[in-house]
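Changelog-linked ticket: 2-aminohexanedioic acid example.
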Amino acid sequence: MNLPKPGALPERARAIASALGVDLAAAAGEDLVARTPVTGEPIAGLKATSPAEARAALSRAHRAFLDWRLVPAPRRGEVVRAFGERLRAAKDELGELVSIETGKILSEGRGEVQEMIDICDFAVGLSRQLHGLTIATERPGHRMMETWHPLGVCGVISAFNFPAAVWAWNAALAFVCGDAVAWKPSEKATLTALACHALWKRTLAGFPDYPQDIGVLLVGGADAGAALVEDARVPLVSATGSTRMGATVAPRLAARFARAILELGGNNAAIVAPSADLDLAVRAIAFSAVGTAGQRCTSLRRLIVHESLREELSGRLKRAYASLRIGNPLAEGVLVGPLVDRGAFEAMQAALAAARAEGAVVTGGARREAPGFPDAWYAEPALCEAPAQGDVARRETFAPILHLLPYRELAEAIAIQNDVPQGLASSIFTRDLGEAERFLSAAGSDCGIANVNIGPSGAEIGGAFGGEKQTGGGRESGSDAWKAYMRRATNTINYSRELPLAQGVSFDIG
Ligand code: UN1
């Protein structure tokens, strides 16, 4: 499998982390273990943030926010621009660290850092475009407008699979909006978070006049997340992860009337219509279904294929899958790295067993042993062919499993696509304009992302990112997602000497 020698990867990860500014001695502890799924080896033992430390960090962030909100937005943008420049310089190293800690291939690790750079660019532009409306008023001598103000300390809870970019989408916007950010990264990707944070702190140190605690890091598991969710000084929590996690976070935020941006499970589908360009579709399907070893929230999990194409497409996918190189994600030519851990592998096997029990024919899915590394969990991507959508296909399994389901009429395909609890990403492969438009229409895909002739994964940062139903309804990244990180005030100004009341109400005190 062409894996590195024992000890080499952990050493490389520690070297990169130090080079990026992580003080490994200060971070050392016994609360959690940073690992690489590439070999399953531990990289470093790390200390978690205690509840008292979390409260103190949130106090510091809140004090910093009180000053930061007064810095003009374009000046705030300069800091984010400098951060983007620092990320450009660190792209290869940080990308490699992402790959080592998540097991995604190097090109995707670097792509994740590019996504951070892109959102910094977006945020810098935004820092000169935060704007409200001027609205016609019914009263003479009055003016009505909207003003957008910084919100406070924004909490960010991120998942292991995008350990850097998800924080950046939230943080770059929040910072230009005048907020502070408290980040609770996944305990499966803490080293990357420490590295990102070190890069951010170094950037901010170049601006000594600005408050230095606008970004704080809370390391650990559910306890550290709870500190964010429960703290009244945190008016917004943006949480990315499983629907189960969202179901614990959302009610607690609602109970104290805090805002939530939830980006939870996806169960993304693609429809392949009779007119589809199959060469293009097969490539797009392979990237979306097996890229990141099926561990993106946008990964393609269901392929709804017109019955006239089913046999041909299934054959082509099987041939494409057979040619995929599975193994060391840092090696040239490999396209499928490991699953994140044993739990992920077992969940995949359980889903495949359940699919078989439902009558699906399963191809692939076996473990690929990594000689000498018993705790590295590589699996062949699996195809499950079933006559109809069953319960297993309706659940999100965070692994490279693609369910192939036949359809006859487009309306039926759209119904199958929408008949799951999640609503993140979707796509259709067709050259028929009418079909494409129906898929994008009000009666089409019910997802937050609906694409034509590309797969459901790999979105750019310029669009709003997120989905409906159990995906949680939040939107991050581009478009007008920034509005979630600010509070809106409606202002009415009377510049006359009269006091006309709205709705013609008279209230004459004589
Ligand atoms: C995620 O898996 O949580 O659209 C985010 C994509 C990436 C982001 C995925 N830009 O696939």
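Closing comment: Example verified and attached. The mean pLDDT is 97. The first helix runs from residue 8 to 19.
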